[in-house]
Amino acid sequence: MKQILISVIALFVLFSVQTIQAKDDSCLNCHRDLGDSPSGLFLTDVHYKNGLSCSDCHGGNKNSDDMEVSMSKSEGFVGVPKGNKISEICSSCHSDKDKMTALGASVKTDQYENLVNSVHGKLSVNGTERIVQCTTCHNAHGIRKVNDKLSPVYPVNIPSTCVKCHGNADYMKNYNSALPVDQLTKYRTSVHGELNKQGNPKAAECASCHGSHNILSSKDVRSSVYKLNIPATCSKCHSDKEYMKEFNIPVDQMAKYEKSAHGKAVFEKQDISAPVCNDCHGNHGAVPPGLSAVSNVCGSCHVINAQLFSESPHKAAFDKAKYPECETCHGNHEILSAKDQLLGIKEGAVCVKCHSETNSQKGYMVAARMSSTIDTLLALQKKANDLVFQAEQKGMEVEEAKYTLREIHQARLESRTIIHSFSEKKFSEVTDKGIAAAGVVVGEAQNAIDEFYFRRYGLVAAILIISFLMIVIFLYVRKIERT
Amino acid sequence: MISNESDGKIIKKENRRDFLKYLLTTGLAGFALATIYPVISFLKPPKQREVKVSSVSAGLAKDFNTGDYKIIRFGKVPVIVIKDEEKDFRAFSATCTHLDCTVQYKKDEKIIWCACHNGKYDLHGRNISGPPPRPLDKFMVVLKDEEILVTKSS
Amino acid sequence: MDSRLQLSDLVKFMSKKYVPVHSHSVWYYFGGVSLFLFILQVVTGILLLFYYKGSSDQAYESVQFIMSKVEFGWLIRSIHAWSANLFILSVFIHMFSVFFEKAYRKPRELTWITGFFLFVLSLAFGFSGYLLPWNELAFFATKVGTDITGAVPFIGEPLKVFLRGGDDVTGATLSRFFGFHVALFPGIFVFLLILHLLFVQRQGMSEPIEASIKKEKLKTMPFFPNFFLRDLLLWLLVLNIIAILAVFFPAELGMKADPLAPAPAGIKPEWYFLFMFQTLKYFPAHILFIEGEVAGVLLFAVAGVLWLLVPFWDTKSSRGQLNRKINYLGVFAVLFIIILTIIGWIT
Predict the structure, then answer these.
(1) Fold adopted by B55-152
(2) Which of A159, A160, A153, A107 is nearest to A134 (CA)?
(3) Which residue of A has its CA nearest to C250?
(4) Does A477 touch chain C (CB under 8 A)?
(5) B42 vs C47: CB contact, 8 Å cut-off?
(6) Chain C residue with Cα closest to A455
(7) Complex prediction ipTM
(8) Each residue of C131-150: pLDDT tens digit?
(9) Mean pLDDT lowest for which of A69-83, A197-211, A227-241?
C-alpha cells in the first residue's frame, strides 16, 4: 500500500515537472511553431512523455528563447547527430543503469553493447560507422515502446521494419551479396507469417529467432540461429505449453527430437551434417510438411532410400492409402536409428502394421523371410568376429580375414538401404554377398585357430622325439662308460 | 662253467647294445623326420600371392578407359584408382569415412560415391556432400612403363 | 663307406683325444653349445633368406609373409630369434668360464683372441639382425645404437655415416645391415671359428690351473664317443628349450617402421647391449673437457682392449700361479653386467 502511494506521488511529481518543462522548452516551442515533422513526431515520443527535451539529444540550451544562445556551440548544440554519434547519444542514457533508474525506466541497459557486438554493429563498408544505428529500427523522433502497436519494433511490425533493408537487393549488395533478400516473401508463406499478418503478436517474427540487438550471423556459433542452437531457439516457444495453448499443436517435438537419431547426432556428437528443425521445416518459410512433402525432405539426404522407395510397390500403396512415405515406418520427430528389428513380424517390427498372417499374407511371409536372413547375417557376423578375435588372441595372423570382415559389415549396412526396394530378390543379392563373405572369414579364422593347436601338438611331438633321442643317448653313454 | 657264464653275460650285453643301437637309429631317424618335415614345408612356395604393400600395381594404363575405376587391395585396405576426364590417374582410400563402406566412382557426376548413405567426394577426395565427416586419404599414382603403381602418399 | 672315406681313421683320431674330467668340466660344454647354436643360426638363417627381402619397402612385409603365409615360417623365424639370444648368452658364459679358469693363459693366447673377436662379431650379428624386420622398435634401436658409435672420437662420425649408409637410418642402412648380417659377418665369423677350433684341436682342452700347481694327474674321458655324445645330449636339450620358447613366445613383429613417426616411448636395445646402454645413461653430460657419452664409449673401448689383452698382462697365470686379482676383476665384470642389465630392464 505504502509502495503504491509512493509511486503515485512520484508519478504525479514527474508529470508536473514534465508539464512545466514542456512549457519552458524553447526548442519545442519554436520548432512547433515552424511546424516541422520532428517536433510533431516528438510529441508522441516516449522520451517526451518521460520529460526529455530535444536538447537532451541535440544539445543546446532549452531555456533560452534567444536562438543564437540556445543553438550555440558553447551551449553544447550538436545539430543533427550523424553516424555512430546517434547510437552513442542514445547509449549515454540507455547504457547507464543509474540514469535509467532515476528516470523511472525499467528497460534493460545492454542494448548498445549488444548492438556493437552484433553483425549490425560491425563497421559498414565505408569503415566509419555501424551498419545500423538505434534510429534505424526505433525511428528518431516518435520513438514508442515495444509493446505500443504503432512502434516499428512491435512484434507484428518487425517484419516490415527489417525488410526495409533486408528486402532491398540493391542496398544489401553493399554488405553481403550472398545474403538472400526474399525472406519476407517466404515468411509470408509460413504459418508464422500468416499469423503475423493477422496481427498475432505471439507468432514468431524475425527477432524471435534472430534476436534483436544481439543479432549474429547464422555461421557464428554464438548465434541463436547457428545450426546447433536452432532446436533450442525453436523450442523456446514450441515446447512452452502455456505459450502454445491457443495454437492447439503438440509441444513434445523437442522432447522427441532429442531422443531421435538426428537429435543425438546434433546434441551428442555436435554433428552439423545432421538435420535440425529448419532442415525439414524450412526456416523463413516454416511449414509443417504435407504428406508428399515429407519424403521430399527426407530424400534430400537419404537419396537412395527415397529413390528405391519410389520405385517400390509400396509407393503406390502408400499413396492410395494416403500414408506419408517415410514417417509411416520411421516416425517424425522421434526417428530412431534404424534397427534390424524394424523389419519382420516380431515385436517392434513395422511391417505388421499392414501385413498380417490373415491380411496381405504375401508381404507377411516376405518380411518374415527377410528378417530371418538378417538374423542369419548378424549371427554369422558375430561368429566371424568372435573367431577372428579368438585367432588374434592366440597370436595368429588373420589380417586377410579381418579385411574380409568389412564385406559383412558392408552387406549389413547396404541391406538397410536396399530394404527400401521391398524386393526380396534385390535384398538377397546384398545379403548373399555378406553371408558368402562370412563363410570365408569363418573358414579362415577357424583354420588359424586349428593352426594354433597344430603348433601345440606339433611341439609335443617334437619334444617327445627329441627327449626319446636324449634318453637313448643317455643310456648309451652310461653303457660305454661302464665298460 | 665260469667261462660259460661270462660268455652269457657278454652275449646279453651285446644284445643290449644292439637294442640300444637300434633305439638310437630309430631316435635319429625320428629326429631327422621332425626336422626335415618343417624345413621341406617351409621351402614349399606358399599358395597365396605375396603381399607387397609399399606399392601395388593397379594393372596397365591401357586397360583403363577414361572414367573407369578399379578397387585394388593395398595391404589391409582397399584403394580406388580412377582415370579422370583429364586422363590423369588418381587413387584414394576406398573406405568411406562415414561408416566404412567401400566407395565407387560415378563417371557421369564425376564424383566418388558411397552407395551406403550417398556420401560424395570430389576428385580430390574431399567430402562434398552427404554424411562423410572427413576426406578420403590420398594415395600417389606413378606410371612406370604403362603400369599403374599406387603408393602411400608421404 | 668306411673304405672310401676312412671314417674309422677319423673315429680313431677322435677317440684318442681326451677331455679332462674334474669338478669344473661342466664349463667345457658351453663352447659346444655355442657352436651348436651357431649352426642352428646358419641353417635357419639360410631358410629365412629364401623369403626375406632386404629393402625398406619390402622387408617388413616379407617378414610378415614368412610369419603368416609360409608353412612353419613362424617356427623358423622364432627359432632364429630365440637361438640368437641363447647363442649370445652361451657365448657370454663360455667367455667368462674361460676367463675364470684362466684358460687363456700361455700357450692359448691366440685362442682367447680369436674368441674375443668371435664374441664381438656375435654382438654385431645381433645388432645387424635386429634391424632386418624393419619394424618400429628395431628402427629406433638402430638409430640410438648408431648414434652412440657417432660418439667415438675422430672416427665416430665417419663410422656412423658408414654404418647408416647416409646421415640417417634409412633403407640404405637396411641394405647395409642385411649385407653385414648375411655375408660379411658370416664370412669373417666362419674363418675365425675355424682358427679357434683348430687351436683347440692342436692344444687340447685347458686344464684347471690348480691341477697343474698340485701336479695332479686328472682323469680323462675320450672325446669320441663319450664327450661327443654328452655334447649331443645337451644340444638336444637346448633344442627342446628353443622349440618350447618358439611355440609359446613366437618372435614378434610389431608395427612397420615409419621414419617420420615420433619415437615410441621406452626404446631399448637388445638385452645384451643393455648394460652398456644403461652405463652411458649414468654418465654426466661432461667429464672434464670431454662429453659424457664420448667418455663412456672410450671407457668401454679401453675395457674391451684390456679384456682382449688379458693373457698378456696376466703374467702370473701364464707362469702357472694363482692370480686372485683376475677372479675379483671377473666377478666385478659379471656383477656389473648383471646389475646394469637388470636396472636397464626394469627402468
Answers:
(1) Rieske Iron-sulfur Protein (2.102.10)
(2) A153
(3) A395
(4) yes
(5) yes
(6) C247
(7) 0.84
(8) 999 998 889 989 988 988 88
(9) A69-83
